[in-house]
Task: inverse folding
């Protein structure tokens, strides 16, 4: 028997083969269908339903809904809501992604030095990424407390009064950005570290022999070689910042200059207003933004990797 | 050159200059990174053990003068904390067990069982990986609440059971398994179930552990869905219960109690992470090396 000839021995009829194929198909469905149905029902179906709900003027819990077509979108984009929500989302996203990437890269460069303890430090730095956003948010809320918070002590120590982090809408957003970067920079650091460790050694040595200093070596050699890693992190961080919810909700429960797309969609439906249709419209806007990001990622990925 | 060689001892591996450089450029930034990460968590634990008077004081005290579990007791009398914990354990255990099982079965089917539309199905699962659960919350709420799923375990668990992440990760791993092992089992007359449980699963330990741990962490920390689908304290999970605790007492006295609550939600995951971080980091950063 040759290596190619592994499935159907000669002499079996076509009927046998199709019976076998049918049996295989049943096995496939028995194994995979529960998961496929769950994904279809709780992931895909809601996507379509959201689009339908977004055309309704509908109070959550009420039996009456009025079809308003694109009314919710018109309201969102003309009432000033879009301007506020989109700019808050943009500031939060750009600042958190930029912060986590830059600090993550710096930490990765530190972790990449072969000093004892670097492995332990790598785990420590990654840890916040896996912790509950609600727990982390509460810890930082205490730290930012203007009277009893640890930060207010530090500020008082250098003769400054603590700002009202939570009550001032601009500072509330800054606070959220700091906490979110703290929680996510370890992820960027570990991914960057993997990227740094896979850089071709001979190129680095050549640059070193050419007499390039550490900074020039990094800026002109390592950083450009890391660009696939940077792009990967850019997209994944953009997606995760656009979906950030836990920290925002626990630190600013009713939204105070912190209404990002996702949080505003939550507040509209499950906050004070119960506006299901309007919330669905905001969700659709968020989904379109996410889709655009994912499209960018896929276009990049398909050039780089092959999922067989 | 000759000038430099006379100074050779200064540039040796253990020379003072070299040691100083290692400390300044290696250890100090490392230490700084660890402190920035660990200090807030240490502060949380220390504060949770302080007496209320120590927290609402403008005098800085780092260590609790009389370490006490008073805040934990207080938290448990303000809200049903033991119940939150039990709910989180139940939801996490059932949710992640089912998800892992579904991921193993689906990934096996996608790789080893013949079916006409396998590639299209895989792509649909891959795309689902990129749909954030948050945009699905409202329609799922309307559906589950309509069936009476408010404040029930099934209502909390069911909508999240489909697993795209686990399926994807295990499929990528199964593709790397040597086909010869499975062919040998097939020739021995082993059916799909036996091949799955006696051949594929036993040699896929690390990948399954990765999926299991990432799923456990995700279920334990899950917030937006349990927040929406529960409003009775006795059915809340820990993160939702903590929100209730945070809203129920806004006086400054409550910081110690809230830190006790934060410890209960954070420390179990921290322990799991410390013990098994290899799998968790690998699972969460997968895709980065290829991308």
Result:
């Amino acid at each position: 028997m040759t290596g190619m000839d592994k499935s159907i021995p000669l002499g079996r009829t076509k009927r046998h083969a199709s019976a076998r194929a049918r049996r295989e198909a049943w096995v496939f469905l028995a194994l995979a269908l529960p998961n496929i149905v769950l994904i279809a029902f709780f992931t895909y179906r809601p996507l379509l339903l959201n689009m339908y709900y977004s055309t309704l003027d509908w109070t959550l819990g009420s039996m009456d809904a009025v079809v308003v077509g694109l009314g919710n979108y018109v309201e969102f984009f003309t009432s000033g809501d879009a301007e506020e929500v989109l700019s808050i989302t943009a500031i939060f996203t750009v600042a958190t992604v930029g912060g986590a990437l830059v600090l993550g890269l710096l930490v990765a460069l530190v972790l990449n030095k072969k000093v004892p303890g670097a492995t332990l430090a790598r785990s420590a730095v990654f840890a916040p990424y896996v912790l509950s956003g609600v727990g982390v948010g509460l810890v930082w809320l205490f730290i930012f407390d203007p009277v009893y918070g640890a930060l207010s002590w530090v500020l008082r120590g250098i003769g400054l009064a603590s700002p009202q982090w939570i009550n001032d809408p601009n500072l509330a957003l800054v606070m959220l950005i700091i906490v979110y970067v703290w929680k996510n920079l370890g992820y960027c650091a570990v991914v960057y570290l993997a990227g740094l460790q896979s850089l071709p050694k001979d190129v680095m040595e050549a640059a070193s022999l050419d007499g390039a200093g550490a900074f020039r070596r990094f800026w002109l050699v390592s950083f450009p070689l890391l660009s696939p890693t940077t792009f990967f992190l850019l997209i994944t961080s953009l997606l995760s910042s656009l979906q950030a919810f836990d920290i925002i909700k626990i630190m600013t429960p009713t939204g105070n200059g912190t209404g990002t797309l996702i949080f505003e969609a939550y507040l509209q439906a499950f906050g004070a207003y119960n506006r299901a249709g309007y919330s669905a419209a905001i969700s659709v806007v968020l989904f379109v933004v996410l889709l655009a990001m994912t499209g960018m990622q896929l276009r990049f990925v398909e050039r780089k990797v092959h999922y067989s | 050159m000759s000038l430099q060689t006379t100074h050779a001892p200064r540039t040796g591996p253990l020379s003072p200059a070299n040691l100083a450089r290692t400390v300044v450029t290696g250890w100090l930034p490392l230490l700084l990174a660890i402190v920035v990460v660990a200090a807030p968590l240490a502060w949380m634990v220390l504060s949770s053990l302080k007496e209320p008077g120590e927290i609402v004081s403008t005098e800085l005290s780092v260590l609790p003068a009389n370490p006490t579990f008073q805040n934990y007791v207080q938290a448990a009398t303000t809200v049903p904390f033991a119940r939150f914990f039990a709910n989180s354990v139940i939801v996490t255990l059932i949710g992640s067990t089912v998800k892992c099982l579904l991921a193993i079965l689906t990934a096996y089917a996608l790789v080893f069982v013949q079916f006409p539309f396998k590639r299209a199905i895989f792509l649909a699962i891959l795309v689902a990986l990129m749909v954030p659960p948050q945009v699905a919350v409202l329609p799922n709420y309307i559906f589950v609440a309509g069936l009476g799923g408010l404040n029930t375990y099934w209502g909390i668990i069911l909508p999240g059971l489909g697993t795209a992440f686990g399926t994807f990760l295990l499929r990528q791993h199964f593709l790397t398994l040597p086909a010869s092992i499975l062919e040998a089992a097939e020739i021995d007359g082993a059916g799909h179930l036996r091949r799955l449980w006696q051949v594929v699963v036993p040699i896929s330990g690390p990948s399954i552990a990765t999926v299991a741990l990432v799923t456990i962490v995700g279920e334990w920390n899950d917030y937006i869905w349990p927040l929406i689908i529960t409003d009775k304290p006795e059915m809340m999970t820990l993160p939702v219960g903590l929100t209730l605790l945070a809203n129920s007492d806004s006086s400054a006295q409550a910081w110690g109690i809230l830190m006790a609550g934060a410890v209960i939600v954070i420390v179990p995951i921290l322990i799991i992470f410390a013990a098994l971080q290899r799998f968790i980091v690998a699972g969460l950063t997968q895709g980065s090396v290829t991308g």
Summary: Residues 1-8 of chain A have pLDDT under 50 and may be disordered. Chain A touches chain B through 102 residues (CB under 8 Å).
